[in-house]
Amino acid sequence: MVSAKSFLLAALAAGTYASPCKSLTPTLPGTGTTSLPAPAPTELFRRIAIGHGIQNYSCESSTSTPVQLGALAALYDVTPLYPGTPRTGLSKAAFDALPITTLYGQSIPLNLVDPTVNYNAVVGNPWVAPADLVLGGLPTIKFLGHHFFEIDNTPMFDLTAAGLKASVARNDSAAAPATADKGILGTGAVPWLQLTESNKNRSNGLNLVYRVVTAGGVAQSCLTTGAGVGSVPYTTFYWFYAA
Ligand SMILES: *[C@@H]1O[C@H](CO)[C@@H](O)[C@H](O)[C@H]1NC(C)=O
Ligand SMILES: *[C@@H]1O[C@H](CO)[C@@H](O)[C@H](O)[C@H]1NC(C)=O
Ligand SMILES: *[C@@H]1O[C@H](CO)[C@@H](O)[C@H](O)[C@H]1NC(C)=O
Q: From which residue to which does the signal peptide run (predicted)?
């Protein structure tokens, strides 16, 4: 005769039931074809953010190949919306659509030089006042921080609202799925990435970042932009981990 308690404990150990006390650990999505290296078992899930901003590129001339300069994006905390989260979780379809919903439903949360001309941000002063993300029919999504490239081209995620920082470098990439949204300029979705610790002693409480479910962000051809900087709107999920 098995007691109810020992039955429940056995079921929990076997993973049959999710424990109501244990918080849910989200599972990183895959592209369906190429897999990025999975987080090591020692990595602890920390946050999922929506990033909304620009990828910027430079063209030497109209016949050259665009070279990535960096990226600028505001980050919003969608961790509470992850499907299955008690009370606040969205349906999988609504959650997975957040990058597209944000890309087409919100103006770019950056100080743009002249949005009637292009998507270039003001150099040295690209940020607007931090504000939460309000998408129709969804709970308010809290502002989390900023993503940018530092002076030495090192990607930084400064999660000011959480007191966390990730200074990282590209370790691996996977092409976005063929069905990914090509973005406002129709250029395509930037690859999914695994970004690992830069070892520049700039991180705080984070050491691993993934960019997944990208929409937009691929450079325009230099023939279109001519010489100079070209910025392309994008959204994505960033997943953050700590060792
Ligand atoms: C391109 O992005 C970087 C940040 O990643 C930013 O520092 C720089 O000002 C941007 N350049 C232009 C010309 O917009
Ligand atoms: C970095 O990428 C390589 C393969 O591209 C992989 O073998 C390695 O495990 C990755 N590093 C981490 C920390 O996951
Ligand atoms: C790392 O940075 C902290 C503060 O930002 C500093 O106190 C410490 O000395 C640095 N460590 C190394 C090895 O540079």
A: 1-18
Asked if 103 and 181 touch (Cβ cutoff 8 Å), the reply is yes
165 with 202: CB under 8 angstroms?
yes
What is the tens place of the pLDDT at every residue in 114-129?
Answer: 999 999 999 999 999 9
Ligand nearest to the Cα of 194, by number: 2
Give the integer Cα–Cα distance in Å for 138 and 78.
Answer: 11
Q: Where are the domains of the chain?
A: 44-78+96-242
Q: What is the mean pLDDT of the chain?
A: 91
70 touches ligand 1 (CB under 6 Å): yes
Q: How far is CA 70 from the centre of its chain?
A: 15
β-pair type (228-242, 142-149): unpaired
What is the secondary structure of 133-149 as a DSSP string? Answer: B--TTSPPBEEEEEEEE
Identify the H or E element spanning 9: helix 4-13
| Residue recorded with tokens 């999975």 | 38
Query: Ligand 1 centroid to 237 CA: how many Å?
Result: 21
Question: For residues 239 and 236, what is the distance between their CA atoms, to the nearest angstrom?
Answer: 10
pLDDT tens-digit readout, 148-193: 999 999 999 999 999 999 999 999 999 999 999 999 999 999 999 9
In the numeric block, the tokens 């849910």 are attached to 24
In 3D space, the residue among 102, 202, 110, 103 whose CA is nearest the CA of residue 158 turns out to be 202
d(CA 73, CA 236): 10
**149 Cα–ligand 1 center, Å:** 8
